[in-house]
User: Which sequence fits this backbone?
């Protein structure tokens, strides 16, 4: 019996060991929504897919929907990102993605949310890039900016999933926007908690 192979761009949200040789991979995909796919035998050294299964990677996947679980049949990296190069940004991205994973119910596409995460990754990449000769160096990354990144990301996740009742923020993060989010932390966190409570998922 043959199965249809679905190809889509995806972000790896979480990687879970399964047995001695396999992995269950949680993907936030562009076209299929959130899916968990079994990557059979990918913990083995000889696995060709093994090197591409890294948390927070932007990848293209081939997956087959089985009777009870998706099965990963192919994966390749679209673009490398520098998220792991800075602990402050890494913790912020981790919390935002975990919230998205938690709030997304079922396999419904959320393309705007997917595209937003790519913008978030691009912002981090740009901030961690070394300036070219003659260019002014970026401002140093601090806890205020990372805190703002998390608050900004959480608001965007809630807004794109239809749970945000507050003012809509700009789509693309900037240092100024993130620092403003940090300055307004008390008010925004209160609204975030109210919005998450209203989801009735918690």
Assistant:
């Amino acid at each position: 019996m043959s199965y249809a192979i679905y190809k889509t761009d995806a972000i790896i949200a979480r990687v879970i060991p399964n047995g001695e040789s396999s992995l269950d991979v949680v993907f936030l995909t562009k076209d299929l929504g959130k899916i968990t796919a079994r990557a059979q035998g990918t913990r083995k050294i000889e696995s060709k897919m093994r090197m591409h299964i890294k948390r927070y990677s932007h990848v293209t996947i081939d997956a087959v929907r089985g009777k009870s679980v998706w099965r990963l049949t192919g994966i390749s990296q679209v673009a490398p990102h520098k998220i792991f190069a800075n602990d402050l940004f890494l913790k912020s991205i981790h919390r935002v993605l975990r919230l998205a994973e938690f709030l997304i119910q079922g396999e419904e596409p959320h393309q705007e949310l997917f595209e937003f995460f790519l913008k978030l990754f691009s912002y981090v990449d740009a901030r961690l890039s070394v300036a070219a000769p003659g260019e002014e160096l970026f401002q140093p990354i601090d806890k205020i900016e990372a805190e703002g990144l998390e608050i900004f990301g959480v608001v965007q996740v809630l807004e794109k999933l239809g749970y945000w009742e507050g003012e809509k923020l700009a789509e693309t993060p900037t240092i100024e926007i993130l620092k403003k989010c940090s300055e307004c932390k008390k008010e925004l966190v209160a609204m975030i908690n109210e919005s998450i409570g209203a989801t009735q998922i918690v």
